[in-house]
Please model this.
Amino acid sequence: MKKSGAPKLTRRRAIQMAATGGLSLSLDPKYETRRTNRIVEENRKPGSRDWQLTRVRYDKSEQRTALIEGYCSRQSLKAGEKLDIMVSTDPGVPYELDIYRTGYYGGTGARLMKKIGPLQGRPQTVPSPGEMNIHECKWDVSTSFVIPDDWLSGVYLGKLKTLPGSEDLPYWESYIIFIVTDERPVDLLFQCSDNTWQAYNRWPSNYSIYTHPKGIQGPWAKVSFDRPYGRQAQYMDIVNDPLSFGSGEFISFERPFSYFLEAEGYDVAYCANCDMLTPDRGLKAKAFLSIGHDEYWDIRQFKSAEKLKESGVNLLFFSGNSVCWVSPFTDSEAGRPNRRIIRGGPYGADNDYANDRRRLHGPFPERGPDEGLLMGVRNIEPVNGGGDWIIVKPTHWMFKGTGVRKGDRIPGLIGWEFHGDAPDLPGLEVVAEGTAWQGGTNPAKWQSVIYNGPKNNFIFNASTIFWAQGLSSPPGHTLPWSHFNRPHGPDARVQQITRNLLNRAIT
Model:
């Protein structure tokens, strides 16, 4: 196995990092990296902290910021393709839009890529509920541009800002978000969990897959990507961060992972869920990463991941509640592909969890296969709660250099949702397991596992949405909490476990 460009994690270094909450990053000026790739070159360019929102004001519903908000015509696109951006300001005032690529950039977190405006804003119509309670905007295009050839794959934030025209008047801000993907051979492919962002999105006033009058778990609701992202859906229970308006769940659950990867100099490209409807993009990577809260998968995504596994690509699920619901894509009313999803039915084949979902909340139009045969663990009941990540097999190679012992705990790392009930797969090893508590008292047994694929590859499942919280604390990030439980932020053990897994996957 090739050596990482990161400095060796000695006991002294681990103690120093734990004491400071520090992050050992290869691109930090104190260290040198032996990695050379486009991510390293990109992150040597000057960054800016101005990408962060400063002033956000939500309306009475607490779900949207009608003063300025917008959405993009595509979840992801490639260099040379055109992006339309739809913006509404109420009242109609001038505004500007700055586009940033998120990354490390010397610790600033993002780089300014393009300035647009000033443009004249105006209120755009809030849609009436449609079929299956869908709220799909038909806003006029406010601005468009073609993705330049030199824009590297990444997660891009557009900061919208009103221009009130007087120092006596306040300005207001929110985000738009899109992904630039590509087709280059790459070590790591980072799949954003944007289907799940949209499933939970309550814009404009408490409308989501979970808020249909018939119930929160059935196949009743349809949601559209043709609308802004509002506030974090469970802001009173998981992440109360109004300064992430418009960014889906990226800043909360995925951003600490991408910041870590780019700081460490890993060769990574990014994609949306819809980019995995075929396996083509994933087959050009050595490892496929599922990050954060990756709950909603079109069945074609599942078949693509199976193809990756069969072809020797490593699958690393640094996520929880993943591959839980079949969410078929359909076109928007205007005919744009992959702009609507529904909760089609549970994954799980005939497992008890899936049968209970069908019995209690069905009938469903779709039935998914056993996700445990892909991920190594399954969705369970209860699926949410909080707890410590407890190591049970410290001699495994993924723990090399961490100094951990059996029974060591990483406090609060399990949450908001997780996996368990590992299937009987040849060679599957449970490397961590324990109890999480729903509502602080109701126990659930979770498991983290690893097993070998058919072509000298491997599949790992961390079994928690919160894994990324142990990797970094980027500018603008707020720690979540769940069921009276919270992760602590960067942890030297989580960082080194992640390096060990990634370095094995790309060699």
Notes: Residues 1-23, 26-32 have pLDDT under 50 and may be disordered.
